[in-house]
Write a structure and sequence with these properties.
This protein is mostly helical. It has one domain. The chain has helices at 2-27, 36-47, 56-76, 81-98, 109-116, 124-145. α3 runs antiparallel to α4 and α3 (56-76) runs parallel beside α5 (109-116).
């Protein structure tokens, strides 16, 4: 029965967190707060918070690092997309592992950045601002509601 409760609460908090990011993005003039890879982050933050991949350091720096890698490849490496995208993903994954900030959902950020052709401002909003918001919600959910030690 505990698994049912956790799954319901994880689904509920994922809905609330992504809902807040969506409202901020579409119903305010504050900017963009949501990216596709944040949906995958919900699985780890609310379903498996004890995972090393779900820790705030990994969430924040994993998303930031891979978005920067995507930007670097987009703006400085003049190759066709079918070569650029896999290289950027590979470098992003490799750097997350090297710097011990692996967050699997962030592996998709170079794809999002390159296909979207985003500007440097994208690093602040949605990557940094959105990551901070989802980390805050994960701390509230895991510490206050589930009474888990998070971050661990």
């Amino acid at each position: 029965m505990g698994n049912l409760k956790q799954s319901i609460l994880a689904g509920l908090f994922s809905t609330i967190t992504i809902g807040i990011l969506t409202l901020l993005t579409y119903k305010t003039d504050f900017g963009i707060f949501i990216i596709a890879s944040f949906g995958s982050s919900m699985v780890l933050l609310f379903g498996y918070p004890e995972s090393p991949f779900a820790q705030p350091k990994n969430v924040f720096f994993g998303h930031l690092l891979t978005a920067i890698v995507g930007m670097f490849f987009l703006h400085f490496i003049p190759l066709p997309l079918f070569i650029l995208i896999p290289l950027a993903v590979g470098f992003g994954v490799g750097l997350m592992i090297l710097f011990n900030v692996t967050h699997p959902p962030a592996g998709g950020n170079p794809i999002i950045v390159i296909i979207g052709g985003v500007s440097v401002e994208y690093l602040v909003s949605p990557v940094i601002s959105g990551s901070i918001i989802i980390i805050i919600f994960a701390i509230i959910f895991n510490r206050l509601i589930l009474k888990k030690k998070y971050p661990s």
